[in-house]
Amino acid sequence: MHKGSPTIWGVLNPLAHIASRWTPSPRTVQRAALAALVMSVVIVVTGGAVRLTGSGLGCDTWPKCTDDSLIVTQEQGFHGAIEFGNRMLTYVLSAAVGWAIIAARSAKPWRHSLTKLGWVQFFIVMANAVLGGITVLTGLNPYSVAGHFLLATALITVTTLTWQRTREGDGSPRPRVPGPVRKLSWALLATTLVLIAAGTVVTGSGPHAGDSSEIRRMPFDWDATVHVHAVAAWLVCALAVAMWLVLRVVDAPADTRARARDLLVVLLAQGAIGYVQYATQVPEALVAAHMLGSCLVWIAVLRVALSLRERPAEQAEIPSQGDPQLSAV
After folding, report:
1. Helix (H, G, I), strand (E, B), or coil: what is residue 55?
2. At what angle do helices 77-106 and 112-137 cross, to 10 degrees?
3. What is the Cβ-side half-sphere exposure of residue 120, based on CA atoms within 13 angstroms?
4. What spatial distance separates the first Cα and last Cα of the chain, rounded to whole Å?
5. Which of 16, 20, 45, 311 is most buried (most C-beta within 10 Å)?
6. How far is CA 163 from CA 7, 56, 114, 124, 275, in A?
């Protein structure tokens, strides 16, 4: 049989085999991308639950749960179940990312950009799984924990971008607002990243070490780091208000102004939670809500930036089923 035949290509590349037999609707592709985004947020919140319940070393090694067992044992009790459950959610996240890759690859016409974004998601998930293992093996080193969260934020970035791209075309991006407004969005993005990074320092030097044993903490004064974090939060709020006002002045599209309004609402809620948790000695429930809020703030900032440009729908030709390009990922 000729090596260029669809059967051989299908054997060599299961994704091409699926794509030759299934064409998802645009709505299905969007739902797949949204599922990956939702799971990327869920895994952050459940990871926070591991820390806040002191279950970070519930499974005392990696990739196994114990030296003698791949799964949690009865002797490890509640903390082991929490930690192992979070590990299992990584497989659910991987399945969601896999669905997004398959849906993007099977769409007609084949949108290479979406497939590439899906694979970026996959490699971030794998890298963070390894970093999570290193975190356990190093006894919840706070710098490793911070890196674990920042990689999770990177995943949220890519899943948000992918979800947005499923509702756009593949043409070159075209601005919808004047240049200075786009520069303001870059400042907002950069300041929000500083805010998120400062938040990892607050966590790394704060009271929730992730386990009841003696865990190394970042050598910073916690009150000082909280105040630096608060200053960054106020800067983000100021930039968000400026963005909302400027978009109204330049008569930006309605959906762009709506994204800026949504950001203000999320920031208001997140700020309220932050101040209440500080005043009440950081109770676990509020810390978990603040972690969820951190994800939502970052998504809202990204959506504002992405709404400032548009990509027209440019239909590419559908490659024939015998085309060797079908063998590529």
Report:
1. strand
2. 160
3. 18
4. 23
5. 16
6. 32, 31, 9, 16, 32
Q: Looking up tokens 């992405």, which residue turns up?
A: 306
In whole angstroms, give the CA distance from residue 117 to residue 22.
Answer: 20
Q: Report the amino acid identity of residue 147.
A: G
Q: Whole-model pTM?
A: 0.87
Tokens linked to 281: 């000695």
